């Protein structure tokens, strides 16, 4: 059996995907960027990039580098994983990256399926829904980096790609795997590269995954992995290197301003000490990180704490207007990165990180290169454990994932 290779455009999405792939016992390796060292054999390898909002040309280059490395590891099928809300702009980066990967693989028709029904992301008639709302009417409408103001995935993908985009409607998907395969074959005859594929249930994803089993390229959200059947034998999990007695301080770091994360923070801040990083102070060069670190170290060691830069959309918009969108994001990420280094040096051994960009900044700041996948906290969010030093357990949570009690649930969930 060949290895399933996956390229994810952010870190939380990569852990989400790795967790799903590991559910049935597959040996899954999760690596940060392209490794420069040998890795043990695996059934699936997930390469986590931080390429969702960088310039499209850079995202393409990073993804092609990951593809070349995955092929040296025996990857015979590539899954390009992006967010279940299709986070992107008119310029990319989903379309340009998918085009480059497909060209390099000589791929035929590839599905476009960001659906994640368990987390209320569904596709019907090519339109993406978040719960009972079209994407354009959901909280993603005001996302600070990738505001999604439309819901028609066929149109969105066509704007970003150089190739024709078609639709496999739910009427076809509901007929099962063979009907979907027939749609793929017709698309190949018609010169269509991408097929937005409706999915409203996990059963749909199972049928789609089976139909795409021989496709060289698959694109979509992490839940598409539910249908990628396997016959591989799992390797035993490693024994934990972190004992309960060695677990030190627990910290929640949140840079996401998604509606779900704001609700989770409101609940967590009722029961745990919390500290907000002031954007104006960061911009003015004030010792914001030093103040936060001093506050952190003054808290009782056994007490979980919350440090956040999240804010209501109006405050985010004001900060972006004042400092520029990219600069505002970079300033907050630099502050959180500096703080997490101080926190780990001071004894933090469990981190719960909310937001894809924040997760990428934290993982990079700590020099983490590979993670082992643990138990699932909530759909799409597993615990992970560092393979290299420092010895940490980390939950990397997409901003919109998890229920209101996510942080409390995570704390109660063993690796």
Descriptive account of the structure:
- The protein is α/β, with parallel strands linked by helices.
- It has 2 domains: 3-227, Rossmann fold (3-Layer(aba) Sandwich); 244-412, Four-carbon acid sugar kinase, nucleotide binding domain (Molybdenum Cofactor Biosythetic Enzyme, Chain A).
- The protein has 14 helices and 18 strands.
- Strands 9-10-5-11-4-1-3-2-16-17-18-15-12-14-13 form a 15-stranded mixed sheet, with helices on both faces. The protein has a 3-stranded antiparallel sheet with strand order 6-7-8, with no helix packed on it.
- A hairpin with a 2-residue loop joins strand 6 (121-124) and strand 7.
- The protein is globular and about 65 Å long.
């Amino acid at each position: 059996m060949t290895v399933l290779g996956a390229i994810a455009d952010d870190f939380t999405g990569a852990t989400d995907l790795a967790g799903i792939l590991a559910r049935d016992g597959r040996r899954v390796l999760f690596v940060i960027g392209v490794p420069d060292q040998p890795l043990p054999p695996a059934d699936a390898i997930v390469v986590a990039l931080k390429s969702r909002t960088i310039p499209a040309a850079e995202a393409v280059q990073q993804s092609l580098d990951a593809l070349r490395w995955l092929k040296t590891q025996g990857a015979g099928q590539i899954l390009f994983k992006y967010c279940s809300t299709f986070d992107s702009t008119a310029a990319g980066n989903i379309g340009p990256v998918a085009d480059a990967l497909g060209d390099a693989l000589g791929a035929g028709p590839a599905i476009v399926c960001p659906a994640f029904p368990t987390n209320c992301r569904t596709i019907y008639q090519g339109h993406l829904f978040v719960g009972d709302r079209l994407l354009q009417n959901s909280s993603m409408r005001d996302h600070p980096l990738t505001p999604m103001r439309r819901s028609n995935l066929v149109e969105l993908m066509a704007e970003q790609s150089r190739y024709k985009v078609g639709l496999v409607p739910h009427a076809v998907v509901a007929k099962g795997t063979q009907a979907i395969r027939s749609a793929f074959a017709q698309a190949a005859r018609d010169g269509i590269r991408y097929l937005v594929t409706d999915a409203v249930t996990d059963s749909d994803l199972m049928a789609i995954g089976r139909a795409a089993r021989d496709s060289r390229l698959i694109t979509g959200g992490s839940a598409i992995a539910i249908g990628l059947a396997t016959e591989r034998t799992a390797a035993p999990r490693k024994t934990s290197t972190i004992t309960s007695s060695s677990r030190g301080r627990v910290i929640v770091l949140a840079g996401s301003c998604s509606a779900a994360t704001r609700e989770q923070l409101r609940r967590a801040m009722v029961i745990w000490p919390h500290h907000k990083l002031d954007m104006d102070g960061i911009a003015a060069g004030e010792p914001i990180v030093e103040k936060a670190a001093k506050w952190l170290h003054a808290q009782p060691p056994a007490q979980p704490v919350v440090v956040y830069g999240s804010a209501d959309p109006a405050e985010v918009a004001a900060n972006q207007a004042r400092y520029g969108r990219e600069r505002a994001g970079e300033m907050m990420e630099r502050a959180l990165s500096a703080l997490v280094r101080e926190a780990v040096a001071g004894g933090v051994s469990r981190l719960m990180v909310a937001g894809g960009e924040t997760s990428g900044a934290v993982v990079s700041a700590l020099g983490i290169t590979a993670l082992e996948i643990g138990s699932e906290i909530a759909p799409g969010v597993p615990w992970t454990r560092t393979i290299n030093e420092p010895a940490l357990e980390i939950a990397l949570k997409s901003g919109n994932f998890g229920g209101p009690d996510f942080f409390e649930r995570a704390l109660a969930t063993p690796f």
